[in-house]
Amino acid sequence: MKDFILPTDDRDMGTPARQGAPVTLTIDGFEVTVPEGTSVMRAAAEIGISVPKLCASDNLEAFGSCRLCAVEIEGRRGTPASCTTPVAPGMVVDTQSQKVRKIRKGVMELYISDHPLDCLTCAANGDCELQDMAGAVGLRDVRYKAPDQGGLANHFEARNTSGEANPEWLPKDDSNPYFTYDPSKCIVCNRCVRACEEVQGTFALTISGRGFDSRVSAGGVGDDFLASDCVSCGACVQACPTATLQEKSVIEMGTPDRSVVTTCAYCGVGCSFKAEMQGDELVRMVPYKHGKANRGHSCVKGRFAYGYANHKDRILNPMIRDSIDEPWREVSWDEALGFAAGRMRALQAKHGKKSIGVITSSRCTNEETYLVQKLTRAVFGNNNTDTCARVCHSPTGYGLGQTFGTSAGTQDFDSVEQTDVVIVIGANPTDGHPVFASRLKKRLRAGAKLIVIDPRRIDLVKSAHIEAAHHLALKPGTNVAVVTALAHVIVTEGLMDEAFIRTRCDWDEFQVYAEFVSDPRHSPEATALLTGVDAQELRAAARTFARGGNGAIYYGLGVTEHSQGSTTVMGIANLAMLTGNVGRPGVGVNPLRGQNNVQGSCDMGSFPHELPGYRHVKLPEVREIFETTWGVEIDPEPGLRIPNMLDAAVEGTFKGLYCQGEDILQSDPDTKHVAAGLAAMECVIVHDLFLNETANYAHVFLPGSTFLEKDGTFTNAERRINRVRRVMAPKNGYADWEVTQLLANAMGAGWSYTHPSQIMEEIAATTPSFAGVDYALLEEKGSVQWPCNEAHPEGTPLMHVDEFVRGKGRFIVTEYVATDEKTGPRFPLLLTTGRILSQYNVGAQTRRTENVVWHEADVLEIHPHDAENRGLNDGDWVRLASRSGETTLRAQVTDRVSPGVVYTTFHHPDTQANVITTDYSDWATNCPEYKVTAVQVAPSNGPTDWQEDYAAQAERSRRILPAAE
């Protein structure tokens, strides 16, 4: 397998790049021109001269502690550190004089004198910067002798009496499941501490002690890495130049010898990674420094939680059964596909061509998702295709499409570095999108202001070195009222950008909107009782946003998963247009997409009313493009959404489903209704990695492939199309696109794709926003953001720069309509749901990794006041009940939630939080109202009858007959 290497310099340049006027200097006789502010070290690297270094790295600000990078500069005294010395016009630098060579060798002797010389057996052998630098400076002998063992022991004993200890005698810290900390190998370069501060923004590490007793500390006395504030992002491990912080996978398997650049398959940030290999075995995932979404950073999931690919639960052989009451039996691919195709065709013959459909995956590649929606339109002959975006960001597509003219965010992630004031509404970036959160926190530490609109006190409200200027802790379900009240303040106090509105928006529509929001009933004072937000705090937040300079809005599922999700999205767009915050760096409306390819699955035409590129299926000129390409006739009538499919199944008119990579039984609302719909179907085909909850009701199981086993593309939350590259051969024998093609051909399709690049060529030929995209461009550029076409051959980082996609921006009246889900005497509390850092969505992947160390079960957060009223203590079993159902889980008493509000995650199927949620949904898109459910909480002795019945049914459904001899 050929390694992938981008045509980009992957060296560590020592210090960050700068922007400024050109400065010309001479280094070792070579002239070089670099931007003002560039360090001498980086300037030397630009012309291929490597200056030895240990404390410097180009993702960290210069520190100047190791003194290994000393140089001589003509006309200056001494030997300054090249990492902290900026270039100057006409400067003449000597990096290789005898004087600096002698200094470097002496410095390196001191480091080596206090370092174990076990290089041959060290896990970092061959991948150790200390080892490399010793060779670079020509160190061959060490004059300084370490004290004898007795001396060291006496020294340790003496230091112990004062509470300190020599690091050489401190035990290795193995508490973190993914990496170790060995203090005996620490050279106190501070790189791990600085990475934790500058890159991650957690400030979990520090240096304790002095001199030879200095060491990295992960908290207070007695704390280890697992007990500390460390979030296991891996920044410290990546920064470490020795084996002090080392991946356990490297210790066990050895250093990797090649790498393949690919894209993470977790959240919508879309981080680029180097999958570092030994042969076809993955050793570690290292964030790729040239990844334009993550800029060399990562989180615990992308960095470490890839072990599910080799988990024992993974199903690698196709399976079928006639009834869901029977055990599974393993069969050949041909038999499984023939069984599935025969059943689906029989259902269509008996119940009509619209009796079957598909659910595409936001986990799979663009190419795979494109084929699944093509399967239903070109092979099944209907438009019954939907995707998980239905239950997360479908209101984004509708709301932004109506106001701006396109169904996607306006900026790239780099844009946050130029923002002055940020609104985060209905999102928890530190848990859901941690790499973006780190970039946001860095900007906040540099002086940007933050407004958090959330019923829960998320970490961004206040944590290490950051604090929100305003936290509007609104009552769940009142997003529209709060957003409209913000607009009321901006309009009535004359804080809007009139010039922008007149130039870029429809002025007549604005007049209608302005009259609407100016009504006193929308004032913060009038809505305070409804929303629970203090009127003066809301007014102050509105002024901060309107007057603060570049204003950016980032939002998540706390906006979209409501009965008025689309209305809130339109209200957010109104706010951005009111203040002129669209069309330049540092501003915009930015949905934080939840899954790795949820943007792409929408782009590829996964919705029942839209063909790829968000073009309505009723338009004959659009259908003609695909009819010509596919050689079939396309139904002009929109198909069924996921909720409609389930309703129709219960009614007896929808009979067959091909579900690729989605677990709707755990992820969709009103679990009992989902189960009833699935049970009523006569052929459910599940295409996945594991026997998930939906597979309990399946008749065919087609094994899936992980992101490590395929080629293709993902499209992240910033519209960035990133390459996914095959790291290893598919363990099941086929990539997911091949499985879909095999199923289509079993039904008579006659497809003949041999590589995903051919599918992308078809996408480009039929979809205007992808017209310029091909694999050659992605190999050259690394990634591009759509639209990418003749007008934008290198992609579009910023949308709506000169005008909106629809022409004039459209202000839309956002009337607040209370949800039908109401609290009352039986159900007095409001339940809202969300995610946690270590787990991901339904947990199918992360629950099968060591991430369970941090979150082994879903818990219910409840305010101390509500807990006391119910006689509940932290850790008690509680019964959580709604009008839809009930479940039990442990209580966590915390003031992170407001009185009257409870919160839980949905990562574990034994909790089945969605048995509680109702079938209320967004008025425009049917996106479920996960975030507002009236509930009651009471003490419990353990699982409910329903949970026990569910667990028993799941166990029966997962029986697999032993393979025939």
Automatic annotation (TrEMBL):
Single GO cellular component term: oxidoreductase complex
Residues covered by the 4Fe-4S Mo/W bis-MGD-type domain: 257-313
CDD domains for the chain: fer2, MopB_CT_Fdh-Nap-like, MopB_Formate-Dh-H
Keyword Iron: yes
Stretches assigned to the 4Fe-4S ferredoxin-type domain: 177-208, 221-250
2Fe-2S ferredoxin-type domain span: 21-99
Family from the record: In the C-terminal section; belongs to the prokaryotic molybdopterin-containing oxidoreductase family. Belongs to the complex I 75 kDa subunit family.
PANTHER family: FORMATE DEHYDROGENASE H, RESPIRATORY NITRATE REDUCTASE
Name this protein carries in UniProt: Formate dehydrogenase subunit alpha
Species the sequence originates in: Mameliella alba
